[in-house]
Every structure is written in structure tokens, then in C-alpha cells.
Amino acid sequence: MGRTTRKRRTPTAVRAMAAAAALALGGGGLVWANVHASAHESGSRDGRTRAAGAQIATLDCPDVGQQLGRLPSGARPGVDRELANLDRQVTEAYARLASTRRAQAADPGFVRNSVLGPLKSQRTAALHRIGVTIRRAGGSEPRGLGRFAECRGVPADRPAPGDSGSQDQDGDENQSGRDQGGNGNGAAGPVAGDFADITAVEPNVQRPQQGEDASTGTFTTECGVNENGLFNSDNLIVAPGVDNGAHHTHDYVGNQDNDAFSSDEDLANAATSCRNQGDRSTYYWPVLRLQDGSREFDADEPGGGAEGNVGTILKAEGAEITFVGNPRSKVVAMPKFLRIITGDAKAFTNGDANANAGWSCTGFEDRVLKDRYPLCPDGSKVVRIFDFQSCWDGRNTDSANHRDHVAFADPATGACPEGFRAVPQLTMKLVYDVPRPTVEDGRVRNPFAVDGFPEQLHKPVTDHDDFINVMDEDLMNRVVDCVNSGEDCR
Q1: Which of 98, 26, 96 is nearest to 299 (CA)?
Q2: For a pLDDT cut of 90, what percent of the chain falls above it?
Q3: Euclidean distance between CA atoms 309 and 359, whole angstroms
Q4: Are 282 and 254 in contact (CB under 8 A)?
């Protein structure tokens, strides 16, 4: 399978993270597994090592982008660059955290003085530049922007968002926070407590009752499963113009000219993998990997192994991309170049308010997990489920935090918020034929995991999906007609 990527110059700090990952893969988990070994091995020779190792597993920094409201259009490029810079700073600080476990064991103040302190200084400068950029564009700097400079270390015993001390499928106490230094598979996560037996989950999927004016049709677009091998670690929506803005590798279907530097004109004129050539939309999501010790094409690259995303990239067996209606009303057309993100790539540290992606298994799709990967029975396959926001503010194709211009309908009634209009709702299901990981004695072997920011520890709650509408007008009108008339179209 071809691999379509761009070669980039790898920064020194990212090369350091690649070295840490290489040690984990080739040296018995000497770096990534150090927190676990120090925190849990009763035979540790140094009590300080045990305490320090258990103390800090990852970094929790305020997500500045989610705090921004409306911005002057002239400020957006500069602000986007600084937001990407903030992400880079956290990635580099996490690399330092992961590669200095011995120094942390010897000096209780090391993390504070050598990781968190310098990071706060860097973030303070970046936040100042964001304020200057907004003011120069004629806007008002958000109040108290500087309070987002400080990050904190996340203790190794912190539970995942929404976790209440549940048990894993073997009945052991949940390890989701305790084992964050390494999972024994060459990566910082996932760990045993990040998996749950889908057969033990009660059905939990509920849908609002259809009203008299409901739009009940569907439109399915067939765009393949990335047979063209288009991958990169950019994010055109969140970090336009920034190499490696995602810090993890994406799968792409649909539009074939999607990278950080693509303009709307580029997207409109690009080739598409979709069967209907009127759909040049871009659909992209973080790759799913099997942590089997294999070296992928991006093993030494930013977004790949250089940032802790290791193992074989799994190709989806199927990608079902379907637009559905609204249970309360008819829908209107999406504007061209509308951008929507569902899920939150930083949900482990941000909390689960925007954690909208789900995990399930074929044959069990009436039960969906958000903060656990599913362990599927024989004959069943892993399913990733994405429901996108289906209410549009009627004016904007994007917003400063990439969320305010769209919203979810009320889960109980299906109604859109006041001032928003119902548009066709994009839903996606990705199906993977992946071996079931072995979970025993509080450990997981050969797990699958979603790519992510390194400090997010490959938590399932961080899964997400991205979409830019580049359907031509005729096709979008057909989608609306099919959905509103109750037809099932392709």
C-alpha cells in the first residue's frame, strides 16, 4: 500500500521522544515503562524512585483554543499558529518528562523546575503573542488569558474522565491512571483498565422519538478506506499552515489534496476517492494501530513514532459514511467548506464534555463505550462510531474554537438550539478486523490504540473525527432532498 506523506525536518525535542520510544521498543520499556516499574515493583531499590515514579505520569495544560470566542478574521492565522505552538511546547515538555525518570527520582523538584517551570514561561510568551495578535487586528484580548499558562503534572493514580474506580474485564481494580508510565508494548498507553468486555456492557444507545415533521431519509457516500494511502500528521481545520499540527497521523478519504497548506480553492479542484465525483469533501480521523512492535513508515517521523505513536497502522475493513436527518424538522443545505470536528483529541486532560466518539463491536452496536476500548467476542469486529454536530448557526463555516458555529441537537427532543438550523447529520462507522488484546494480571498485550497527542496516553476517550464539506451544490441539494423526503439514497 502506498504511503503519501511529506518529509519534514524533525525538531531536536521530537527526536528525543523518538529515542525514548526506540528504547521502549528495543530495550524492554526502559523509558516509557519506567513510571510503572518504579511505582509498582515492590523490589525497587530506592524508595525515592518508587515515589517519584508514581508521582507524575503526564501533563495537563489548559486547552487555550477552547477558551477563545469570536476573533477578528485578520487575527485567525496568527492565533492558529500560536495555538499550534502551544501544542508543540506541551509535546516537547512531555518528551522531557518521559525521558528523565532517573533525574526525577533523584530530585523531587525536578519536574517542577525543569519541566513545568520552563513550560509555563514558554506558554506565557505564546499567550502574550496571541493577545498582541488579536489587538492588532482590532479585537479585544480575552480577559485573564495569562491564567492559561500554567500546566500541572497528572499523578499516575488519576482515573480517566468519568471513571469511578470501575473494574476491568478480569475483575481487577481499574489501572487506567495507575500504569501511565508504560504498558509493556512500547508505548505510554493504553493499559489494561482502558479495555472493557463489550458483552458485559448494558445496551445504552437511545434515540429521540421521531416527530411529525421529522426528516427520516439517508444519503450514503462511498469514499473507500484510504486505499490510496494518504496519510499525514497535519490538521487543516485546527492548525492551517502548520506542519505536524495534529502530532498524530491521520487517515484520509474523499478529498486527495488535504494537508495543512490546502486552500478552499485547492480542495474544490482536487481529486476525490468518493464514488460520486461531486463529493470532494474531506473526511479524516486518527489512525488505529496495533502495538505489535512493528516499524511503520512513520516510525521516525513527527506524528508517528517520534511522538509515541507506534505499531502497525490498521486499515479499516469498511467505512460507512451516511448523512441522516433530524427527528424534529426538515434540514437545510450545509454551506460549502463548513468545518466540523466531533470528539476531542485532548479529552483525557480536558475532560469528557466534548468526547463524542464511541467504540463498539459488530453485533453489539446497541451498546457504545466512550472511555474504554471494546474487547469483542470471537467473530465480532471493532467499530469506531462518530456522530457529528447537526445544527448550524446559519452564518459561519468555522469558529475560533472550531465548535461554536455548530451544535448537537438536544439528545432528548432532537431540537436544535435557538438560532441554529438543522443540517444533514454526518454519521460514520469504521470497522476493523483486529485481534483481541490479551488482558490478564492487570496487563494488556498487543493492544490496539488510537493515535493521539503523546501526553494523552492513547486513551480511547480522545478519539475524534474531522470533516470539511466540499460537495458541489447539486449534490448537496440531492442530499437534502433525500433526507427530507424519507428516501435512502446513494
Answers
A1: 26
A2: 77
A3: 20
A4: yes
The average pLDDT across 164-180 equals: 39
* b (16+ CB within 10 A) / e for 202-211: eeeeeebeee
3-state DSSP assignment of residue 282: strand
406-415 per-position pLDDT tens digit: 999 999 999 9
205 is written with which cell numbers? 444507545
H helical segments located in 73-187: 76-98, 101-106, 110, 117-136
C-alpha torsion sign, points 251, 62, 397, 392: positive
In whole angstroms, give the CA distance from residue 402 to residue 132: 21
- Other Cβ atoms less than 10 A from the Cβ of 394: the count is 12
- With residue 22 as reference, give the H or E element that holds it: helix 12-26
Q: What is the DSSP string of 39-52?
A: HH-TT-S-HHHHHH
Looking at every residue in the chain, the average pLDDT score rounds to 87
The pLDDT value given to residue 40 = 35
Assigned C-alpha cell, 425: 447529520
Q: What is the 3-state secondary structure (H, E, C) of 320-341?
A: EEEEECCCCCCCCCCCCCCEEE
How far from the centroid of its chain's Cα atoms is residue 101's Cα? 27
Three cell numbers, residue 215:
426528516
Strand extents, DSSP E, 229-348: 231-232, 250-254, 282-286, 288-290, 312-314, 318-324, 339-343
Query: 307 CB contacts (<8 Å, ≥6 apart)?
Result: 14, 17, 18, 91, 247, 248, 453, 454
Whole-angstrom Cα distance, residue 73 to residue 290? Answer: 41
Quick: pLDDT tens for 110-129: 999 999 999 999 999 999 99
**48-74 as b/e, with b when 16 or more CB fall inside 10 Å?**
ebbebbbbbbbbbbbbbbbebeebbee
Burial class of residue 2 (count of CB atoms within 10 Å of its CB; 0-12, 13-18, 19+): exposed
Angle between helices 12-26 and 76-98 (to 10 degrees): 40
Contact 187, 311 (CB under 8 A): yes
Q: Are strands 448-450 and 464-468 parallel, antiparallel or unpaired?
A: unpaired
Q: Could you check whether the bond before residue 424 is cis, i.e. omega within 30 degrees of 0?
A: no
Q: What share of the chain is helix, strand, coil (3-state, %, to 5)?
A: 30, 20, 55
> Per DSSP, which regions of 158-249 are E strands?
195-197, 218-221, 231-232
